[in-house]
Amino acid sequence: MATAAVDSAMEVVPALAEEAAPEAAGLCCLVSLPGEVLEYILCRLRELCQSSGKVWKEQFRVRWPSLMKHYSPTDYVNWLEEYKVRQKAGLEARKIVASFSKRFFSEHVPCNGFSDIENLEGPEIFFEDELVCILNMEGRKALTWKYYAKKILYYLRQQKILNNLKAFLQHSDDFESYLEGAVYIDQYCNPLSEISLKDIHAQIDSIVELVCKTLRGINSRHPSLAFKAGGSSMIMEIELQSQVLDAMNYVLYDQLKFKGNRMDYYNALNLYMHQVLIRRTGIPISMSLLYMTVARKLGVPLEPVNFPSHFLLRWCQGAEGANLDIFDYIYIDAFGKGRQLTVKECEYLIGQHVTAALYGVVNVKKVLQRMVGNLLSLGKREGIDQSYQLLRDSLDLYLAMYPDQVQLLLLQARLYFHLGIWPEKVLDILQHIQTLDPGQHGAVGYLVQHTLEHIERKKEDVGVEVKLRSHEKHRDVCYSIGLIMKHKRYGYNCVIYGWDPTCMMGHEWIRNMNVHSLPHGHHQPFYNVLVEDGSCRYAAQENLEYNVEPQEISHPDVGRYFSEFTGTHYIPNAELELRYPEDLESVYETVQNIYSAKKENAE
C-alpha cells in the first residue's frame, strides 16, 4: 500500500509537468505506475541521495580517488560530511601553500614554519592528498606552489615516519622487525615515494613463490611448500634447509639476476629496500636482509652478523640447544651470490683476523644503526647537493636511535649553521650538547656566538633590494632573470635567478675561482644561476651565452624563484619579480630577438 508521501508525490508530479517544458511531460508517466513501484523508486532515490548513500560516495571517489584506499567497505561513512571536510582541508592547505612564498622567499623555511599546517583541524591524510594534487598539476605551471607543497609534504611525512620509527624501536626484537626497520629508513629518506611494508612483503612473496616452484623440482614433498606466506615455522633438518638455500640461490642470482653492486657501491639507492627490489642490486647489508627474509619465509632460520666491512648471515649447523661456538655455523655472503663461508674464509674476505664476538648475531637496532651509519658516510661525501639532504636525513635517523650522541649532535648543529637555516634549533641542540658534555664548551661557545649574531642580522634586515635595469650602474647587464643560458667553458645549461653589476664575492672566493684571469676580471656583471646538475653557481657574464635550444632546468629550487616555464624561458614568481621589476619585459624582448634571428638563419 502506498504511503502518504507517495500519495503526495503523485499529486505534485502532474502539476510540475504542466508548468514545465513539453519534454518534462514524461513525468506524468510516473503517476501511472503502481503505488508500490513508485514508493520503491522514491525510497531508493532518497537512500541514494542520503549523506551515507552511493551518490556522495561516488562524488568523493571521482574527486579524490587516491583516498578510497583508506576506507573499509564495511565501515559506515557519512560521505557528504566526508566530502565537506576534505574540501575544507584542501582549501586550507592551498591557502598555506600560497602564503609560503611571500613568507619564506628570502630564507629557508624555518623549523617552526610548518606549525600552521600541523595545527590545522581535520585528518592529516586530507592535507597530504591536497599537496599531492598540487604536485600533480600540469608540469610547466604552478612551479612555486609545487615547490612549497613538496617541502610541506616532505616535512609532514618525515615527522610521521620518525614518530613511527621511535615507537617501533621500543618493541621487542623479532626477525620480522629487521625488514620493517629497513623500510622505515627507506621511507624517511624517500618520503615522497609511495613505499609501504605491505608492498615490500608482496614483492618478496613473489620471489618466495618462484623459489617454491624451483624447490618443487628438487623435492616435491619439501615441508616449505606447505608453509603459508608470513608463517613462522622453521625447518630443523640441515639437508632440507640446504635444499631451500640452493633453490634460493638459483632464483635470486641466476633467474632474477640479483647481484652485489660493485660498480656503484657508494650509492644511497643500494640501501633502500624498494630500490634493491627494483634494481636487483645492493650492498652486503641490504642484500642480506632480502636473503634472510626470503629464507625465513621458507623456514630456514638465518641470522644477521654485523661482520666488519662486510655484513653476513649465519646458518647454524649444530644441534638445537647445544653449546655452540663460531665454528658451528656456516656464514653466507648474500652480496657474493649466496656463497657459503667458513670462519677462515670470512677472515680472508676482509683480509684480517677478528674476535669471536664479531661473529655473533645482532639485534634490529644494531642493524639499523649500521644502515644509517652507511647513509651518514654517504651524506658526508655529497658534493653537488648543496642542501645536504641525505646527511640531514641520516643524522635525524641516527639521533632518533641514539639521541645523546654528542658528536653527531655537534655535526647537526654545524650543518644547520653552515646552511644558514634553523638558527633557533641550532641553539637548542647546542644547549643539549652542553648539558650532556660540558667539555664541549669551546665548540659550543663558538657556534652559540655566531648563531646569535646571525639571528641579530636577520632582525636588522632592511628588506627587499630592488634592481632596476634602467639604472646607470646596471647599464652593462646584458641578461635577465628567467633566461636559459649555456656556460661557454663548461657547457652546462642553467637559468638566471639573480644578477649583480659586478662580482659581489669576497677576495678569497675571487682568488680561488681565478676570476682575475678573465679578460674583464671581476669588473663585469655576475649572475646567480640554477644549474641542471642541481648546483647553484655564480657565473661571469663573459662566460655565458643564450641557449638557442632552451630546455627545462631540473633543479630542485626552480619553483622557489619561478612560477612557469613557457618553453623558451621561465617566468619569475611575484617575489622575484618584485626584486627585478624590469627584467620580465627584457626577457620577452630578448626571446623574440633570438627566435627572429633563428628563423632568418633557417630561411
TrEMBL record:
Residues 476-573 form the Hemimethylated DNA-binding domain. One of its GO terms (molecular function) is DNA binding. NCBIfam families: yccV. This is F-box protein 21. It comes from Rousettus aegyptiacus.
